Amino acid sequence: MVPIVYSYIAYNENKEIVRGKLAARNEDHATEILGYAGYQIVNLKKTTTAPSLDKYFQTLTKVKPTEVILFYRQMALLVESGLNIVKALELLEVQNTKPSFKKVLSEVISDVRAGSQLSTAMAKHHSTFPQIHCQSLKVGEQTGSLEVTLRQMADYMEKQVNSGKGVKNAMTLPIITLIVAVVVVAILVTFVLPTFSSLYESLGAKLPLITRLMLDMGNLLRSIGGYLLGGLALIGITAFAYIKTPQGGYQWDSLTLKFPVVGHINHLNELARVCRTISTLFKAGLSLTEIMPLVIQNSTNKVVIECLKSIRDDMLGGEGLSRPMSKHPIFLPMMVQMVRVGEETGNLDSTLQSVAQSYEAESEDRTKALIAMIQPVMTIFIGLVVGVMALSMMSAMYSIYGQGI
Length: 405
Description:
With 405 residues, the chain is mainly alpha-helical. The protein has 2 domains: 4-129, no CATH class; 159-405, Type II secretion system (T2SS), domain F (Receptor-associated Protein, Up-down Bundle). 75% of the residues lie in helices and 6% in strands. The protein is built from 16 helices and 3 strands. A 3-stranded antiparallel β-sheet has the order 2-1-3, covered by helices on one side. A hairpin with a 5-residue loop joins strand 1 and strand 2 (17-24). The longest helix is centred in the middle third of the chain and has 58 residues, at 146-203. The protein is elongated. The N and C termini lie far apart (67 Å).
């Protein structure tokens, strides 16, 4: 979905009138972004100017999380060394080589020079700096620990990036291997074997069963191959469109938590993300009522989101965090117990950080075990495919030799 550009007039936290533009999905989203930035809206309207090629280029060259992580770490180091915010931003803008990120930093510098806080200026660029980061940085600015908060956000993002790579990397090899195997078999059965079939028929040889089966399979693929590919494409498009609906997305997210082996890894990663988000924001100084909307916004699994919304509603009713959490089986017993301990001792950030580390370690171990299991399985699979193809061809040759042709 291409973002819509809105122009706004608003009061900032110093009761000064500010004007500007921002990109958002819709008007409610734009209002939410400006609210997190501490602006009180006077006027908000959609711009009528046609989007430039530069805007499309920026959309295609979105700033990567790894670049933001590096920016946070460098910014923390510069602020800690005594540089003021504007000077530090200018230095980082000069050394940045990505045009889209340079443009973002240039606009942030302009806003900071105009009197905005760093968190407020960054909040306008929600696609680069998520609201959860800006809220934490706002607290860091108020408490005088901006460099500490920047490092916490860098660590937090780094964990998020690494946790998402595990299952993806584990599934890349088997998927590529399977695709290659299917393509190779299709080529052999469709084009190579029929050539040998013509030779065998001209010699009048009686072919063995396995060779006849492979040839029949090739004939079938040639006759219905186009329909088969079309049907598979239609099924894929229909499934993709259904997953994009609210109900389909919820069912798919529920299914990803139940897949054999991979489902439990996904489950652990989701819980680790929730634990680390609450821990990081609590350590930054936010209250649980402020934290929960940000945790919900940061979650990617719709099943987890629905449970978190229910917990948030129960929290507002005065039930705390651990009791509402215990009502949902998706939150494992150890997590619920540690949250209860954290509430009782006042160390919720450290207890949830321990839970996040534990789940991340278990997820990493299971991912490594999965990769170690996949490699020999795929080797055996490829060996069987090649063996069957070789056997069908060799048996035909031996059959011809045995018949004295």
